[in-house]
Amino acid sequence: MNCNRRTFVKTGALALTGTAVLGNTFCAAPGRTGITGLQLYSIRDDMAKDPEGSLTRLAEMGYKYVEHANYSDRKFYGYAPAEFKKLLDGKGLNMISGHVEFVRSDWDVAAGDFSERWKHTVEDAATCGQKYVVTPWLEESIRRNYDDFMAFMDVYNKCGELCNKWGMKFGYHNHDFEFSEKFNGESLFDIMMRSINPDLVVVQLDTGNLYNGGAVAKDVVDRYPGRFEFVHLKDVIRTGKDDQFESTIIGEGVADVREVLSMIEESGGARVIIIEQEAYQGKTPMECARLNLEIIKKWGYK
């Protein structure tokens, strides 16, 4: 997920363990039986033009789970929560998670309470049957001061407590700045990992975004065994511009995503795997969605 998707999520462009949160329906038994889904930002233009038709095509490909990236004015892709849940159910799809912005103004320090906007966001996620409510961005103003950052990590734990009451977990999805920006020589990512309560808050590790921050996915997974129940599976290639990376078909890039997944599994993670691709190298987004699912199924994932 990048800054463009942050804008997409923001505008809506048109204490439980992981096992307990997922419940019996979603439990991951030993072996490759976890959930595999698609981040709908991967097909954002298709979803903007024709949400129902796009969801139909995904279901026909074999997808069972999706993650949204469009929530605005208490609607998902223009549908009220109950309506969107009905639409998904009709396609045999389950929206296990979604990306929504949680910003500084969503926590009233004086009142010690969340904004009505955020309370509605969590409620609507529960109505749609989500198990995770994920924020994909951390405002720059919060990243300028160590004390502000630490205070916001405590607020993240409070978000986890609120989501807990609705049978969900709160999550944070990384970009690249979490690895390149530091306080006292320690990366924001490392500070976050030691500050959040893993029973309430998950870090949805994006296996591709971190490369633009100078990190390597395998190193991060090795440093935090057992911490990644929820994974954004993204592979990346070099763009040739300023030594930057962009996403590509999984297994065709430099992120060693198959080995990364195995490492996460071996340490007890990867209960939920969400495929994401944001750049397509001449293919259509739908074609990439199909190919990515075929590849991960060949690897033994469902």
Name of the level-1 CATH class: Alpha Beta
Q: What class, by secondary structure content?
A: alpha/beta
Query: What is the overall number of helices?
Result: 12
Number of domains: 1
Describe what this molecule looks like in 3D:
The structure is a single chain. By secondary structure, the chain is an alpha/beta fold. The protein has a single domain (3-298), classed as Alpha-Beta Barrel (TIM Barrel), CATH 3.20.20.150. Helix content is 40%, strand content 19%. The protein is built from 12 helices and 16 strands. The strands form 5 sheets. An 8-stranded parallel β-barrel has the order 1-2-5-8-9-12-13-16, surrounded by 4 helices. A two-stranded antiparallel ribbon has the order 3-4. It has a two-stranded antiparallel sheet with strand order 6-7. Helix 10 (217-223) runs parallel beside helix 11. The radius of gyration is 18 Å and the shape is globular.
Compact summary:
With 302 residues, the chain is an alpha/beta fold.
Keywords:
302 residues; two-stranded antiparallel sheet; TIM Barrel; alpha/beta; eight-stranded parallel β-barrel; 16 strands; globular
Give the helices and strands, then pairings.
Blueprint (H helix, E strand, L loop, with lengths): L2 H9 L6 H9 L8 E5 L4 H6 L1 H11 L3 E4 L2 E2 L2 E2 L4 H11 L2 E6 L7 E2 L4 E2 L1 H12 L4 E4 L10 H20 L3 E5 L3 H4 L1 E2 L2 E2 H8 L5 E6 L10 H7 L6 E4 L1 E4 L6 E4 L8 H10 L5 E4 L9 H14 L4
Helix pairs in contact: 10-11
